[in-house]
C-alpha cells in the first residue's frame, strides 16, 4: 500500500527566510532521495486551516518511513536542517496509509479536511472519493488514514523541534482552480464531514495553494 508522510506547521517569523531556502534548496531533494520516496510537495495556507504550511510525501509503503535509510537522515540532520528545526512551531506530522485515490492530475489548490481525533472510514468511502474526483474542476482526491506504525519520536531531528501532533486521517481534494477549491470547501462547511469518512471529534478544514513539487522521476 502506498504511504503518505503528512506535515503541517507554522514557522517563527525570525526563521522564515532560512526555512524557505532550506525547504526549497535542500530538504525536498534530501528526503525524496531516500530509497522508497517518490515525490514531495509543499503548500501554503490560502483560507481557513490552522497551520500556515503543509507538505506531503508519497512513498512506496508506510514502511519506508521506519526504514534504516530514512531513520539515518533523522538521526543525522544537516546543518541547514538543525537550524530550520529551531523555527518550527505547532508541528503536525503523521505517517498515513493511502486508503483510496481517484483522479490523475495535480491541482493548483487543495482542500484539506484533517481529522485530528478519530477517523474510521466506512465501506462507502471509496465510492465517495470517486464521486468527488468525477466533479468538474477536481484534479485528484485522496483519503489518508493514520498508519499503525509511526516513525519513532525520539530521533535527533524530532527532539530539536519538540513533540509532534498526530492526526487520525485526512481527505485531500486537489482542485484545478481556486474557485473550484472554494466551492468544495463551502460544501464541506455547510454539510460537515461526509458520514462515509467516519470522522468524530476535532477536525480542521483549509484550502492550501501549491508552492512546488520535487519528483524523483
Tell me the span between the first and last alpha carbons: 20 Å
CATH class, named: Alpha Beta
Structural class: alpha+beta
| Strand-residue proportion | 35-45%
Spans of 5+ residues with little confidence (pLDDT < 50)?
none
Number of helices: 6
H/E series: EHEEHHEEEHEHEHEE
Q: Estimate percent helicity.
A: 25-40%
Under CATH, the topology is which? Alpha-Beta Plaits
* Second rung of CATH, namely the architecture: 2-Layer Sandwich
What global shape is seen?
A: globular
Strand order of the largest sheet: 1-3-2-10-5-8-7-4
Summed up, the domain count is 1
Descriptive report:
- This protein is of the alpha+beta class and 217 residues long.
- It has a single domain, classed as Alpha-Beta Plaits (2-Layer Sandwich).
- It contains 6 helices and 10 strands.
- The strands form 2 sheets. The protein has an 8-stranded antiparallel beta barrel. Strands 6-9 form a two-stranded antiparallel sheet.
Write a short abstract of this structure.
This protein is of the alpha+beta class and 217 residues long. It has helices at residues 16-32, 68-75, 79-85, 125-133, 156-159, 178-191, and strands at 3-11, 37-48, 53-59, 88-102, 109-115, 118-119, 138-146, 169-175, 199-200, 203-215.
Task: Furnish the topology, listing elements before pairings.
Elements: E1 3-11, H1 16-32, E2 37-48, E3 53-59, H2 68-75, H3 79-85, E4 88-102, E5 109-115, E6 118-119, H4 125-133, E7 138-146, H5 156-159, E8 169-175, H6 178-191, E9 199-200, E10 203-215
Antiparallel strand pairs: 1-3, 1-4, 2-3, 2-10, 4-7, 5-8, 5-10, 6-9, 7-8
Amino acid at each position: 500500500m502506498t504511504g503518505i508522510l503528512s506535515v503541517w506547521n507554522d514557522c517563527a517569523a525570525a526563521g522564515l527566510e532560512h526555512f524557505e531556502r532550506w525547504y526549497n534548496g535542500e530538504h525536498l531533494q534530501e528526503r525524496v532521495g531516500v530509497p522508497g520516496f517518490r515525490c514531495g510537495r509543499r503548500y501554503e495556507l490560502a483560507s481557513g486551516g490552522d497551520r500556515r504550511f503543509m507538505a506531503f510525501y508519497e512513498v512506496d509503503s508506510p514502511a519506508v518511513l521506519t526504514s534504516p535509510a530514512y531513520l539515518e537522515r533523522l538521526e543525522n540532520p544537516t546543518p541547514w536542517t538543525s537550524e530550520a528545526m529551531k523555527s518550527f512551531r505547532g508541528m503536525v506530522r503523521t505517517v498515513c496509509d493511502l486508503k483510496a485515490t481517484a483522479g490523475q492530475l495535480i491541482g493548483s489548490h487543495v482542500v484539506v479536511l484533517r481529522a485530528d481525533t478519530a477517523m474510521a472510514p466506512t465501506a462507502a468511502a471509496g465510492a465517495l472519493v470517486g464521486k468527488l474526483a468525477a466533479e468538474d474542476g477536481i484534479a485528484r482526491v485522496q483519503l489518508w488514514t493514520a498508519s499503525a506504525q509511526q516513525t519513532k519520536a525520539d530521533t535527533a531531528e524530532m527532539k530539536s523541534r519538540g513533540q509532534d501532533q498526530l492526526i487520525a486521517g485526512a481527505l485531500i481534494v486537489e482542485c484545478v482552480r481556486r474557485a473550484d477549491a472554494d466551492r468544495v470547501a463551502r460544501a464541506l462547511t455547510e454539510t460537515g464531514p461526509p458520514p462515509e469518512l467516519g470522522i468524530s471529534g476535532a477536525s480542521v478544514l483549509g484550502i492550501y495553494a501549491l508552492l512546488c513539487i520535487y519528483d524523483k522521476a
